[in-house]
Structure formats: structure tokens, C-alpha cells
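G.,

No rush on this.
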Amino acid sequence: MTHAAPASVAHRYCIGLMSGTSLDGVDGVLVDFSQGTQVLWHASRGFDAGLRAELLALNRPEGHDELHRAALAANGLARSYAEVVGELLASTGMAPGNIAAIGAHGQTVRHRPQMFDGTGYTLQLNSPALLAELSGITVVADLRSRDVAAGGQGAPLVPAFHQGVFGRSGQTVLALNVGGIANLSVLDGDGQTVLGFDCGPGNALMDGWCQAHTGQPYDDAGRWAAMGKVLPALLDRLLAEPFLHKPPPKSTGRDLFHADWLAGHLAACAADAAPADVQATLTEFTAHACAEAVQRFGRGGRELLVCGGGAFNAHLMQRIAALLPGVAVDTTAARGLPPLQVEAAAFAWLARQALLGLPGNLPAVTGARGPRILGAIYPA
């Protein structure tokens, strides 16, 4: 059944869903855009073990019958999305007809922009048609591919949203999202100039190592890493990764920073290292990659706002702050938007931009040939 939004709320309320490279689950927010950006409710749902394992396996070009498995995983993801949407609606008392759209990013399993044929591709598993059926709400999905088609990286897409919610007149503000991959937004005080790019790994390597050696999905507050000692030879090898030294525009993912990449470095210089020492070194690697991005491209910013799951890793936050003397490091909660809500809210904003026929990308960030309206629309 189609649920037409009343004119009085058209484009006012949108839902944003985010399931990132950390593969820990879905974060969803219901946003009121009538006066700025007000998150009315946040809901989250962890992936069940089977779906998480399948999504992780599909990140790698191995295995059999990938097309069939990917299609079923996309359906499972859409059902997880629909459960989060249902919780948001129930918690706020909203009817589906009051929601203009759901921005559903999907789950990135390959990200290879500008490669192979000059255009490359980015692939997010999703079943937006199924989500529209299950929710009764218009869905905006496939938010990266138009930017890639226009010669861009397709990522990061959040800097324009960061500028709107965190930018300050006359002051350069830095916004760092530490999900599976870390990305930095540099928000100049003129309200117009924005730089953004992927810095390197965020939680992906740390989480993978922690899962493999402790059975826990992540290192709670970085306590395990804090117990180990940093291995200088391994850290130097990791920091020599060419991606870290490329200028923006640039983006990356598990296509580069995966378990086999790490295993190769471990075999070269740390084959017998204690697991806690490797965890300490991986945490230091993420901290250095983020801090060096700030130092190279931060344009004198003195405020760094951190969001994503990495904002809850106290040891990582301490290391980033120690590497950036003179920069005030805090989470985005200090500016009114909790760390796990930022990216989901950004995709609600991107969905709204698509409905309004407005661009969602920043060519200076992604390298696209110009502004583009992003996303495919699946009406309710």
C-alpha cells in the first residue's frame, strides 16, 4: 500500500540507516529537518552471527555462488533494516505515511572506484525494493554509484552534512568518523570550503584481530590494547602503506585493509608477537593514520570531533589526542549529536536531498566532475 505523506510534513521527517565496514550492525535515526537537524530517536540492531559472517565473506573475492549468496544476504540486510525502522516508528508514534523517505546506504562489499576501466565501481549489498515493501516508506538507495559514474570516489559522502551540523563561522573544525574505515572532514570557517577523504583503517583491523584472539567482536574501550606494547617495526611497516600517503580525493575499504594484508606484514616482522602487542600496534596504527591526516590537511583546525564506534575506544581517543597537541579532541556528543547517530543522520539528509532534487556530493571531496543528485528512489 502506498502511504502518501501529508503536505504539512512533506520532506520534514526522514529515516537514515547505516551499516558500515565495521559490520557490527545497523544504526538508524528518525530526523526532523524542519528546523535544522533534530534526531528524534535512535535505534540499533546487531547483525546475527550468520548474516555478519556472510557479509564479511562477501567482502573477499573467494568462495562459490557469490551472486546467489549476495542476493540472499541483501534480503537479510533489508529485513534487519526494516526491524530498525519499525522500532523507530513505534518509539516515536509516527506512521509510515509521515516519513518522506528512508536513506538506506546498504553494505559495502567492494569499493574500487576509478580502477580497471577508468570508472571502476562501488558495490553495496541492499534490497531497497524489499525494504520499501516491508516498511511502506519510500526508500532512497544506491547513493554512491552516480558519483563514481561522474569520475568520483563515491566516498566519503558525509562531509557536506558535517559542514551543516558542525561547521562554525570563522573557525576550521575537523570531524573524524572512525568506523571500520576512518574518514576526515575539514570544515573551513567560510561555510563553503570542505575537504574530506578516507584516512585509512578505523576499527576494521582492530576488531578483526580482537575477534580472532579473544572471541569478542571489539576491544571494549581499548583495554586489551592498553595492556600490550607497541611493536615499532610492525608499526613502521603498516604506516608505509602507500594509500596513507596519497593526496585526496581518496577512499578505501576492506578491499585493501583486510586480514590477509595484515598477515603479510606480521609474517615479515612480527610472526611470534603476543596478540595483545599486535592489538596495541593496530590501535597505534589507526591513531597515527588519523593524526597524520589532520596534521597534513587540517588547515590549522583546533577542534577535532570524533564519531563512529571508535569514539568509544578510550585508549584510541587518548592516543589520537596525544599525537595532536594543541587540538581539542572530543566526541560529536559535545556538539549535540551522539557518535553513533552522525552517519545515519547523514544518510537521512542524503535521502532528503534526492527527494528535493538537490546534489548530495561535493566534487572537491570525491573528485567527481560536478555536483550530482545521488540515489535511486523506490516509492512506497
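When you get to it, here's the other one too:
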Amino acid sequence: MVVALQLPSSKIPILEIGRHLSNVSSSSSSRKRFVSNSHQPPQYPTLFSPINQSVAAIVFGDGSESRLYPLTKRRSEGAIPIAANYRLIDAVISNCINSNINRIYAITQFNSTSLNSHLSRAYNGIGLGKEGFVQVIAAYQTPEDQGWFQGTADAIRRCLWVLDEYPVTEFLVLPGHHLYKMDYQKLVEAHRSSQSDITIAALNCVREPDPGFGILKVDSQDRIVEFSLRLVKNSEKPNDSTHSTFSSMGIYLVNKKIMTELLDSYIPEANDFGTEVIPAAISAGMKVSAYRFDGYWEDLPSISAFYQANMECIQRSNMGYNSFSDKESPVYTMPRYLPPTTISDAVITDSIIGDGCILNRCKIKNTVVGMRTRIGDRVIIEDSVIMGSDFYQRDCIQKNGIGISIPIGIGDDTRIRKAVIDKNARIGRNVMIINKENVQEGNREDNGYIISSGIVVILQSAVIPDSTIL
């Protein structure tokens, strides 16, 4: 819903409070863009404290509806394992740390147990300095608000009393399940030098957007003049050579004062930040700018996109996300102190192997193998994502009381091709997970798997009996 506001004239000066923070002077020198080079750090207006003191990040780790089901059946999107040793949210938190933003609030709600545990254990002081933190704010109820968070804007509004703890000047609002590398310091620099109220990171191209992020119409000064939920085709609207269109990335840098005034005073009923707060700010005449980003970015809108992102991590090409092996901007995660992976006469090509695995006489090609994975003899795995296990489990279980012994891991003589195997799955012996009938879509949750875009997804903790053919 797009909200158009006609503000009383008495309110306008209050909105301008956030803008005056960056008005160092009216001279042209105070308005020029601050540029950094390899020999000189960025120079910010003297009114602002260093970024680690003046900017706080607000990270959302989940949503009520996920397009990555069944990987989100028991976890939020940000907690999904990727690239053997990591979780999706690690990429976003690491962007903050590498950008010298060390005050990070993670707001969680749906299926948040795994994510809350990971954040609390992974970022207990790592790379955050003496005053840095990653603080988890789980959904809560009060006598005044006895329901769940109704959206990103509602969640921020109800958490403002926590977010007001430190005297920061801007809030950086981030989705926690996207895969990209960005130096947020450059975003902050552009925001301050343009004296904007809100700055939105935008892809330097147009593609079909997430409905919650939308399309931005931008003028020659990078000011956003219109927000829409879908791309307007040429046949629907005449060409406009004075404006450009970009896809929003759902990343917002907002002046703290403006955030408070918008959510508390002007649109106190708004629930979603992208579809309600941004259009309202534009309608109110606030300066909403675009920051163009031309790097790799993937919002993982489907099982197919998640699968492809893992495959690109293996390739380590310029086409995909390559920060997992970037020493200059490392991706942080929880230290687990696992033993080295044990390999016994295995043939492994073009693959990533996580920590603490036990690989017997198997063949692995073009595959991501997650932590603590046990793979038996004569197993062949190709073009797949194996998420591993949360613990070592060599004991067997009984299925329906009929002595079928299947430990966690992948049993002898099994073959897997183009599949995603979720954590703690028990794959029996002589199993064929190859989508033999080339099914594109299928729901077999009762049998422990689904098929999405031709990719077989084995559910978390599923049991696949011996000699099964999928």
C-alpha cells in the first residue's frame, strides 16, 4: 500500500531536524562529494563521529513467508547453512564488521531458535571492538502490544526504546538473508554528502524485484521520485529520458531523527518499511536518494537460486559470491573447534568440504559438503549441496519398529545427483537420489523430500530407507 501524506505546515520544521545534521555550511565546499582513494581514507564532515560510533545496523533475519521452504521448515532464512561452514546471515553481519559498523541489532521472530543461538554464540566480541555488539531482539509482547511484529516497520517502531540506547545519527536497515559484499562506509559517505534523509541501495540495473523491495524511479541527481512494486513496461508508460529505474535491494540508511518521527508521529500504523514507509517519505517531500551498487547481489528467492549460489561458491568465479575466500573482507561465523576432515581413499574434484567430515572410499564432484558429514564406501555425489550434521551420530535408529538401521549421514553404495540434503538427514544404503523421472515440481514431505525446479530437497532429519529410488 502506498501512503500519500499531506503534512501540516507546523510539522515540516520537525522533519527538517534530521536534515540539518549534515548541513555543515552553505558553501559549495561543504556540499561536494567526499571521495576516497588508496592513499587517503574517506573524509567525512567534522560534525559526524566515526562510523563505528555514529551508525547502528538493524538486521532482519526472517520473514513470515519464505520462498526457501522446506529449508525454512524449522529455521529462519538467515539461519540456512551455505558454503559448508556458514549461515546466510554471516554474509550480512560480516559486511557490517568489515565496514567498521560494530553496533548491530538483529530483530528475529519466525522459527528463530537456531538463528538466535547462532548469533549469540558466533559474534560474542569477534571483530567488534570493546564497544561493539550483536544484540538479538526476539519478538516480544507487552501489556500494550500483545501480538507479533506485523512487519519490519512495526518491529523497528516497537524496538525504538532499545535502539535509542546509543547516540547514533543513522540506522542501517538490512535484510539478513541476502548474499553480497558491500562496503557500507561508501553508502554512508554518499548519504551524508548528499544530505539525504533516507538513502536506498539500488542495483545498478533493473531486474524483476522482490515484491517487498520494489522499483525506484531516480532523477539525474540520484533522488528517488517514485517507488513502485513492479516494473512498468514500455507499453504501459511513455519513455522518460529524464529518469532512470533501478531495483531496490531492501537496504535503507535512515537518519535516526527521521526514523523516529516517521514511525511514531506520521505513519504510526505502517507495518512494512519498503512498501509503506518509503512511499510515505517520498510523498512527504523528504529527500530520499539512491546509492547505486554494481556488485554481485542475490536475494535467494527460490530453491533454485539457493542451489545456484552454492554452485557458484565452488567455482570461485567473478560471476558469483566469492567472499568466503576473500582474506581482505572475510566472512565470520561461529568457531566450532571441530577436528580436521578425515579422507580415506576418496576422489574429490571441484568441491568444498566443511570441517569435521568423515569421507570413506567415495567420489565427490562439484559438491558442497557441510560440517560433520559422514559418507560411506562407494558413494557417488555430483552437483549437490550436503548441509552436514549438528552432531556426530553413529548410533542407529529403528523405523516403525522394524530393524532398519540408518545412522546420520550417507550410506554405502548410494548415488546422489543435483540434490540438496538438509542437516541431520539419514540416507540409507544403495539409495538413488537422482530424480529419475525428471520431475520439476513435487511435494513428498510425508516421504521426507520435495522436488523444486528439478532439484531434490531432502528435509532436515529425514530418513530415507535403504534401496530407495527418488
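The two ends are 44 Å apart (CA to CA). The mean pLDDT is 83.

Enjoy the weekend,
O.
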